[in-house]
């Protein structure tokens, strides 16, 4: 679609308005993909079926399990090679032990 066709179709009065808009958004070829696709924004086509959603969730679960294993391996390496303790302290058990020790 040319700027002239856009003027006629959308009732735009001035030529410079259309040209300014085209320069701003950089789409002289209006048949090319929309800006949302150019910037990587995913537009849902149709709602997923339950089977598709389950498959997607299973893939996400598998990916998160791999990440968890990787981070556990990193923590082990840090502990063995560098002597750094990166594990989270259990505050609930520590506070219970303190309470027991104080009352005795």
UniProtKB/TrEMBL annotation:
This is Transposase. It comes from Yersinia enterocolitica serotype O:8 / biotype 1B (strain NCTC 13174 / 8081). The lineage of its organism: Bacteria, Pseudomonadati, Pseudomonadota, Gammaproteobacteria, Enterobacterales.
